[in-house]
Every structure is written in structure tokens, then in C-alpha cells.
Amino acid sequence: MGQRGDTTTTSAEAPTAATDVLIVGAGPTGLTLACELLRRGIQCCLIDRLNEPVQTSRAFDIQSRTLEVFEAMGIIEKALEVGMRAKEARVYDGEKL
Ligand SMILES: Cc1cc2nc3c(=O)[nH]c(=O)nc-3n(C[C@H](O)[C@H](O)[C@H](O)COP(=O)(O)OP(=O)(O)OC[C@H]3O[C@@H](n4cnc5c(N)ncnc54)[C@H](O)[C@@H]3O)c2cc1C
Hints:
The protein is of the alpha+beta class and 97 residues long.
């Protein structure tokens, strides 16, 4: 899978007439779509206006619905293996718990 700024998910080459789907946006939605298309043998081209990944964390925690999607994709075991399980979380609004 290419990083943001790449012209394609399958190679560094520019998209050709053989590309079936153009995906605009290499965030989690675009990357997941690219994975699912490629798993089904559908060629796609993934583009993003950013030349490199953002430097701030946007995936500190993975929600349960995402885990369900991972399970459907067949990657749940690997995700749990490399992730850390949180036993509890506290959400603050200013000083208020
Ligand atoms: C600070 C922060 C922390 C977060 N923490 C968490 C977390 O811990 N857990 C969690 O589950 N979620 C978290 N989120 C939310 C999560 O990041 C979003 O839900 C997720 O990124 C949405 O994915 P997306 O692919 O739909 O959109 P995005 O991640 O926004 O990706 C869209 C991509 O499309 C590109 N793009 C947009 N318009 C164009 C265009 N016209 N041409 C080319 N490219 C374009 C953008 O550059 C971007 O790369 C956080 C978000 C923020 C901001």
C-alpha cells in the first residue's frame, strides 16, 4: 500500500486505462476501500492532495465497530496482536470528568 502522495496503491506508476477505480483521499476510508477493491482483484488508483502523512495521531483508539470491520476483512487477529488493550478510559471536558 502506498503512502499519501503516491499516485497509486499498486505501483509508483501513474494511473492507466487499466485502472478501474480512482479513489480520492488516502485517509482510513480511502485506504480501506483500496484494500477491499484489491482483495477482489479490482485495480484502483489512490491519490491525495497531501504529499506526506499527517504528523499528529488520529487513531489513538480503535472503536469496536472498526474491530468488527477488521474481523470481516480477516485482519482482526493481527490487529489485536499488535495493539494494546485498554481496560478503561476517562473522558474530560475541561476539568469535568
Ligand atoms: C486530532 C484527531 C484525533 C483523532 N483520534 C482518533 C482516534 O483516536 N480514533 C479514531 O477512531 N478516530 C480518531 N480521529 C478521527 C479519524 O481521524 C477520522 O475519523 C478519520 O481520519 C476519517 O477518515 P477519512 O478517510 O474519512 O477522512 P480523512 O482522514 O480526513 O482523509 C481524507 C483524505 O482525503 C484527502 N482529500 C480531501 N479532499 C481532497 C481532494 N479534493 N483531493 C485530494 N485529496 C483530498 C485529505 O488530504 C485526506 O488525506 C481523530 C481525528 C483527529 C482530527
